[in-house]
Amino acid sequence: MKAVTTAEQIEAVRALARATRVLERASGELSLAHYRVLAAVDSGDERASRVANRLAIGKPTVSAAVEALARRGLLLRSAVDGDQRVAVLHLTPEGRALLARVEAEMIRRIDELCARTPDPGRLMESLVWLGAANDDWQAQRAADRRAE
Questions:
Q1: CB neighbour list of residue 30: distance below 8 Å, 6 or more residues apart
Q2: HEC-encoded secondary structure of the chain
Q3: What is the pTM of this model?
Q4: 8 A C-beta contact, residue 30 and residue 98
Q5: Mean pLDDT of 29-51
Q6: Which residue has the higher pLDDT, 2 or 147?
Q7: C-beta atoms surrounding 77 within 10 Å
Q8: Residue 86, exposed/middle/buried by CB under 10 A (0-12, 13-18, 19+)?
Q9: What backbone phi and psi angles, to 5 degrees, belong to 83?
């Protein structure tokens, strides 16, 4: 494997930023920030604090997103028996349907981009690896903060 130069690293950062814009456009009915919250809840993060940790954003930001999504009928908050401070988050059928539509369009756009590369399958695999590496990094940062 060849060494990556600073110019290649800069181009990689810029490519990711441009790709993010493609995803923003594909999300249409949903801001990318709200998409991330719905996707985190759909992946099993049922508490706002877990969503905040997973997405590396502040709890007030998550609370505002949850409030907006609940007002739109996309997310439900349920109280936890015996703990008034905690709410469990669930997607509504409308939230699940919207998430599915948005993700289908995002997948279509990513597939179009990947098809323009020399090795579409390898790029898709690398994106999955990047996601896993990001999750690991976020988990380590959260563990480090708890240890302080």
A1: 38, 98, 99, 102
A2: CCCCCHHHHHHHHHHHHHHHHHHHHHCCCCCHHHHHHHHHHHCCCCEHHHHHHHHCCCHHHHHHHHHHHHHCCCEEEEEECCEEEEEEEEECHHHHHHHHHHHHHHHHHHHHHHHCCCCHHHHHHHHHHHHHHHHHHHHHHHHHHHHC
A3: 0.84
A4: yes
A5: 90
A6: 147
A7: 14
A8: middle
A9: -140, 100
Q: Tokens standing for 35?
A: 């998409």
Mean pLDDT, rounded, of the chain: 90
**Statement: residue 1 has pLDDT above 90:** no
Domains belonging to the chain, first-starting first, are 31-116 (1.10.10.10)
129 beta partners: none
Give CA angle at 38 (115, 123), nearest 5°. 20
